[in-house]
């Protein structure tokens, strides 16, 4: 009894005054209203201006209110929280608006006909036609690039993590770093110089080679990180059973990290699927269906988008096709990413 | 089966750092030999030189001789992979392969070496799991992942995996340091059974454990941090714990230093 009485009389040192839960929302609503009011009064009609004003008002308002009621530490905490939220919104808004714009404009002409027909007999300014030729071109070029780039990348990473010691490994790491920074157009020009040397015409596989160059360092980097994550104890456990090193790598290290490696490869594929510059130089583009990546010019999705947009200025039909192709490309990349996540989850060590 | 190990003048390096110096000892077959000593004195390093795992560490190299029944493990033309098939190892922390089931973990040594008959495989797995006192606990879930077991079960799984390839010698590097007392007891009982068939070498920080499980005990020490570790003495466990011939051993065992 006496304990309770004493405890009641003493002010708690642990509990301080705190703002109700709805405070941030109230401050947000207030600052938006105030921001709108100020811009209306000042006769400003830009949306960005009132939003910026509301943002500044929200942060200062939160700080002042919280500092008065809760104290300075909590006020700083609230300000930091609101900065994090602002950064999050700033990052998400462009992404959402991009997806929104692409879906809105892309769905206009996107249908089965569009996906299964080429531009063979359709002039760029006319409506109709489709992107079948570009899808085929993209799939073949990216597929071939992956067939070349992914194994080389994975093997390089295996060398660096499992075997690489000394100067050679350092040199390989250095050149992989340099390759990561190669602009796609430079990779394209490199292959173009070879093509000119042997007097060749544009064809799909040349584009694949340039894309493979761009893909390799990305695959090396991600695979390297994944292999480093495999605990050394597993390698030692396997070696101690009398398993040779190469079988240890093949049967223990790679299965343990295969989920992450696949994710890395998928992301690298997503990256090269959107490359335009080397394809423009080396594959040239072609309105007709060309199924042979080793002979003759081909189309590809990013190149198709670029050409529809640039070469037929003012034609709504071409614009619509470009947006629909963009949507297809985004969908392709998203499906790849989802597949990568699925594989990573499915293959994750339990 | 169980083979004798004769070590003479063994020195091991990590790069330019000398980790252990001039160690000579004989490890008897069908017995348990325990290594004790303060941290950093090179017990584990010495253990790893006995199946050529030391050289897996970058910069690791060895001078001297390790005879396994008269054959020098560091002799010319000896394949470290074959050495490790005859001298198995259990590590400090249980490390079952996370991508494999319990069955596959035990079968891993045979499968990865590629030398087995399919029909024999399940017999070998059953025998090894029984040998590791784990069969009754896992026989209904052989296809479940090995990482779903408790720590003590995982460690016995690792023992089963190591004995499935029928080694001559089993090295154990602090096999109980990550386990609770009950699991530790299970492993110690297991060691007692396994010494009928294998030569066992165990590194431990737990002196009661060394006294409980081993027939002979070796005490390692180092003069100072950065100095190489040395073998101080090796003798019957009873003698080491009751009447050691070196003062440092007695100091260490009675807890007066280290």
UniProtKB/TrEMBL annotation, chain A:
CDD domains recorded: TM_PBP2
Subcellular location(s) per record: Cell membrane
Transmembrane parts of this sequence: 22-42, 48-67, 79-103, 142-161, 173-197, 203-220, 252-273, 322-340
Signal sequence coordinates: none
Keywords attached to this entry: Cell membrane, Membrane, Phosphate transport, Transmembrane, Transmembrane helix, Transport
CC terms in the record's Gene Ontology section: plasma membrane
Annotated membrane topology: Multi-pass membrane protein
InterPro entries, A to Z: MetI-like, MetI-like_sf, Phosphate_PstA, Phosphate_transprt_permease
Chief localisation class: membrane
GO molecular function, one term: phosphate transmembrane transporter activity
Source superkingdom: Bacteria
Residue ranges constituting the ABC transmembrane type-1 domain according to the UniProt record: 135-340
Annotated GO biological process: phosphate ion transmembrane transport
Family of the protein in this entry: Belongs to the binding-protein-dependent transport system permease family. CysTW subfamily.
Function: Part of the binding-protein-dependent transport system for phosphate; probably responsible for the translocation of the substrate across the membrane.
Official protein name in the record: Phosphate transport system permease protein PstA
Species of origin: Streptomyces galbus
Lineage of producing organism: Bacteria, Bacillati, Actinomycetota, Actinomycetes, Kitasatosporales
Automatic annotation (TrEMBL), chain B:
SUPFAM superfamilies cross-referenced by the UniProt entry: P-loop containing nucleoside triphosphate hydrolases
GO CC term, one of those recorded: membrane
Pfam families assigned to the protein according to its UniProt record, in alphabetical order: ABC_tran
Family annotation (InterPro entries): AAA+_ATPase (IPR003593), ABC_transporter-like_ATP-bd (IPR003439), ABC_transporter-like_CS (IPR017871), P-loop_NTPase (IPR027417), PstB-like (IPR005670)
Domain of life of the native organism: Bacteria
SMART domains, per database record: AAA
Gene Ontology BP term (one): phosphate ion transmembrane transport
The protein's name in its UniProt record: Phosphate ABC transporter ATP-binding protein
Organism: Streptomyces galbus
